[in-house]
Amino acid sequence: MIARDGPEALDFLFGTGAHAGHDTSTTPEVVLLDLKLPKLDGLEVLRRLRADPRTRLRPVVILTSSKEDRDLTRSYELGANSYIRKPVDFKQFVKAVQDLGLYWLVLNEPPPA
Q: What b-and-e string marks burial along 71-88, b requiring 16 or more CB atoms within 10 Å of the CB?
């Protein structure tokens, strides 16, 4: 699932708005979150995910082009599990996302449901 902005991401994950009635038990195992989302930035999306018991423990990986130390620090303060700067080269970007999937979906041990 790809959300185009912050509110759409939250609606999908919480089964609200345009995604009302969506079965939230089938939400992603890991959330890849860009900080520069339209309408509601990634830091606010992260804050809301961590504030809700349904998504508090869901792994969230910040995948962003931001090189600001304050974004990095704030992401971890709000509970990000990882912070990765997007490679500029598209092939490197695709490889990074594949490696992320391997780690978070195959190697990582999530908390019990």
A: bbebbeebebbbbeeeee
**Span between the terminal Cα atoms of the chain, in Å:** 21
Q: What does the alpha-carbon distance between residue 65 and residue 33 come to, in Å, rounded to a whole number?
A: 11
Both tokens of 5, joined, read 């902005």
What is the pTM (predicted TM-score) of this model?
0.87
Torsion of CA 94, 95, 100, 106, to 10 degrees: 120
Cβ within 8 Å of residue 19, ≥6 positions away? 11, 12
Q: pLDDT tens, 19-54?
A: 898 888 777 889 999 999 999 999 999 999 999 999
Residue 81 and residue 59 in contact, taking contact as beta carbons nearer than 8 Å: yes
Residue 40 parent element (H or E): none
Superfamily of domain 6-107: Response regulator (3.40.50.2300)
